[in-house]
Amino acid sequence: SLECRLSDERASVLHSWCVQSEWQAPTITGGRGARLFDSDGRSYLDMSSLAECSNLGHQHPRLVEAIREQASRLCFVTSAWGAQPRAELAEALLELSGFAGGRVFFTLGGADANENAVKFARQARGLPRGQVIARDRSYHGASYAGMALSGDTRTQGQVDAQSFQVSHVAPPYAYRCPFGSASDAECGERAAAAVAAAIDRHGADTVAAVLMEPNAGTNGIVAPDTYWPALRALTRERGVWLIADEVMSGFGRCGEWFAWQRHGESARPDLMTLAKGLTGAHVPLGAVVVSAAVSARLEHEMLYTGLTYCGHPLACATGLAALAAYRDEGLIERSRQLGAYLFACLKALQARHPVIGDVRGGHGLFAVLELVADRERRSALAPWPQTPPALRRLVGKALDAGVSLATRGNLIILAPPLVIEEKELDDALALLDRLLGELEAP
Ligand code: PLP
């Protein structure tokens, strides 16, 4: 029975990012658009695209059909052999991103995309153990190198970043600017200057790459507009590769195919990592896209990497269907428009609720609410990264009301599927309005 299956999972699966004995969740048996359905027949509006990955919603018919079709022809062949969907997806990604003359390495997800991007950057720079600079309050994956790259409080204690030749700099967290800047623009500039200082401290000839998210982050920081263009300029000046982690921010999440594109051609990174929205999470797939300059340096050298499932045909066929769905349904544009609407609604909520200290986002369907105990003083509801009990209760009540919300620390992260209907968005916001009122009530 379903009940038996539910208890089986509780007893038998090691679940991510939780205390095992505390894991508890409905068993999801289906989905459609922005909704998920559980084994009790209940429906949940998914306001986070699960792990900010189901950009196309759940069970997108075009992707389901592509999986079915590819499965009937060829499920798998290793990358020792060619495969048509792999070739087509690589070409489509290079064309879409404008990385003419570059190449694509396929992975299974985001962490291994970042690890391999670092390998390629080091090799292409002729520094096999070259330094990599990432930032605090970032997340790049939970493999060991992914954790070393992440400036995440949850993973920092588990791994010695220095032994991976990774160092971290302070983030462009404008609401609580680590550099004491009062303006967003200046905070972005100072945070970029800190990267330049870190490169210079190590010596530019020992630094292989800077790896960062261009705009939004799963740890709730949204970089000011000044940040990425400055990072691009200073890494170029110093001859250091710039790797954009677009695992979460790509495929419309930030209102463009890739978040860096908002800053124009001059902001193009040297390498870019992708996953999540690449297949809308219908099948696991990640990728590293490298520029023509990086590719040229790798052309006649041994590549010391490989994954059994590199460019899995089933996943690549799904990726091709995903690209077609984003394009044909105008979802990048839709994300930009609905994202602006969401941001305006959240600003209106902030005017009504003093518990909302900051609203971040506005570029695409990604927004962050930072909750505070006192708006004037910007005092945190709970010390980072703890989630305050009141916010936990709010999330529980939302789920009971059929809306699934993602939180991290004091943050509520809103990143619904790009196919969410306006009415669904309105319903979720009305519920949030009510629940924030209850949270504030004495
Ligand atoms: N990079 C970013 C920005 C992410 O948000 C994530 C996952 O949340 C990752 C990398 C890791 O991706 P994966 O979980 O597919 O390994």
From TrEMBL:
InterPro entries: Aminotrans_3, Aminotrans_3_PPA_site, PyrdxlP-dep_Trfase, PyrdxlP-dep_Trfase_major, PyrdxlP-dep_Trfase_small. Pfam families: Aminotran_3 (PF00202). GO terms for cellular component: cytosol. PROSITE patterns: AA_TRANSFER_CLASS_3. The keyword Ribosomal protein does not apply. GO terms for molecular function: pyridoxal phosphate binding; transaminase activity. This is Taurine---2-oxoglutarate transaminase.
